Amino acid sequence: MKRILLFAATNIAVLVVISVVARVFGLDEYLAARGESFGGLLALSAIFGFGGAFISLALSKTMAKVSMGVRVIKEPQNETERWLVDTVAQYARQAGLGMPEVGVFDSADMNAFATGASRNHSLVAVSTGLLNGMDRNAAAAVLGHEMTHVANGDMVTMTLLQGVVNTFVIFLARVIGSVLDSALSGGRGQRRGAGPFYFLIVIVLQVVFGSLATIIVMAFSRQREFRADAGGARLAGRDRMIGALRALEGAQGEALPGQLRAFGIHDGTASFLGRLFMSHPPLPERIAALQASTVE
Questions:
Q1: Would strands 121-127 and 71-72 be described as parallel, antiparallel, or unpaired?
Q2: ∠ CA 17-20-24 to the nearest 5 degrees?
Q3: In degrees rounded to 5, what are phi and psi of residue 11?
Q4: pLDDT tens, residue by residue, 204-246
Q5: What residues are labeled active site?
């Protein structure tokens, strides 16, 4: 709840600053002259920006199960599944969390992810490749990493951050699009309604601003991964967490698809420019951070 209130307060403060700036520079009068409401546009942008993010969060478990073919373990069918459920249950008790759903998905790559709408209604899933390719010490550390994501409320935090950036992408694309459309149409800001260039400009600006916003979101996500590694080290032991990351470094399989990428255990590899869009720091950096930490 504190996390949500902090984000809400931050977002409100930013909106107030934008409103003041718009008043000082006369942007609200400009939009009004074109038949547009500054406040209405800002509110509509927030509705669409946060609405899409929260719908995605609400459906995250269902989408993950369907897209990844996750089989939720209701009754363990073998000793490995029993160990998996028991380990997650132990970490949930230590973190004071409700028991997540635990699942397995078929993939030769070593990976795992956590998702869900809240800390007490989450899903933790691991690949068959991870269960077959890692020893239990390393696999336990991966589970600790994913449970730390759940305990930290990372799914909600990422949703709130995405909602904020979505709002400003939608809003700024339309405000700047309105100004550019008026200039290209030969108007002086007094013509009401959108001109012939408006929608094309808005689409282009949304792509550009959306890419810049993704860089911001991914930068936050990378910091979140360092915290999850530290949490995994606290739950399972630093040497085990380092061992898990080294096993992933040796395998270097594919990252998870789509929105699950940010909640997996690794993000594959990327070029120098591609690093700006990585949801996870490079594995050597994560290993070095753990080696330098005081976590035992």
A1: unpaired
A2: 140
A3: -65, -40
A4: 888 899 889 889 988 998 999 999 999 999 999 999 999 999 9
A5: 146
